[in-house]
């Protein structure tokens, strides 16, 4: 039996759809890195439906920094590190704060698991490729090609690992 090119494409698409149903791939919508004073030093959009312009991403980073600091101050428990997870109907926001006060947060599909480990991996990339870069000025926007390349690989690796979870 010989299959036409269109039939072959249709078969591949149906196989991809069935794989998505069996192994839904969690999508990371965006990644933000905020310095200790609340300035956005890195932003990466991973193809979310409603892409934000630069001003919107700055507003989100500023708002998150403010909410994070307020939550630390209002917490009844001592040593609270602030909000780590914000769950909404259409997205989840996972945050990791380093000891220096730099915040890393991802906006992802609701219910996405294991984002804490991805954020810690991103932090390690940040320390290896940004902080150890002799040309990087602290608290300034990140412009480091090696960081970008390794970050893309880490996010892609995490997406592939989602298939096995």
From TrEMBL:
Belongs to the TRAPP small subunits family. TRAPPC4 subfamily. Keywords: Endoplasmic reticulum, ER-Golgi transport, Golgi apparatus, Transport. SUPFAM superfamilies: SNARE-like. SMART domains: Sybindin (SM01399). GO terms for cellular component: endoplasmic reticulum; Golgi apparatus; TRAPP complex. It comes from Citrus clementina (Clementine). It is found in: Endoplasmic reticulum; Golgi apparatus, cis-Golgi network; Golgi apparatus. InterPro entries: Longin-like_dom_sf, TRAPPC. The keyword Transport applies. Transmembrane segments: none annotated. GO terms for biological process: endoplasmic reticulum to Golgi vesicle-mediated transport. The keyword Membrane does not apply. It comes from the Eukaryota. This is Trafficking protein particle complex subunit. Part of the multisubunit transport protein particle (TRAPP) complex.
């Amino acid at each position: 039996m010989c299959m036409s090119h269109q039939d072959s494409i249709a078969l591949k698409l149906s196989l991809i759809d069935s794989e998505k149903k069996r192994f839904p791939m969690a999508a990371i919508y965006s990644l933000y890195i905020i310095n200790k004073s609340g300035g956005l030093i890195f932003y990466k959009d991973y193809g979310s439906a409603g892409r934000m312009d630069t001003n919107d991403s700055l507003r989100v980073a500023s708002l998150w920094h403010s909410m994070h600091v307020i939550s630390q101050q209002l917490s009844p428990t001592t040593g609270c590190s602030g909000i780590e997870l914000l769950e909404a109907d259409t997205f989840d926001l996972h945050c990791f704060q380093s000891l220096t006060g730099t915040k890393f947060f991802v906006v992802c599909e609701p219910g996405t698991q294991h984002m804490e480990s991805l954020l810690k991996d991103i932090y390690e990339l940040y320390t290896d490729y940004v902080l150890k870069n002799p040309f990087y000025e602290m608290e300034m926007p990140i412009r480091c090609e090696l960081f970008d390349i390794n970050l893309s690989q880490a996010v892609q690796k995490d997406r592939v690992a989602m298939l096995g979870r």
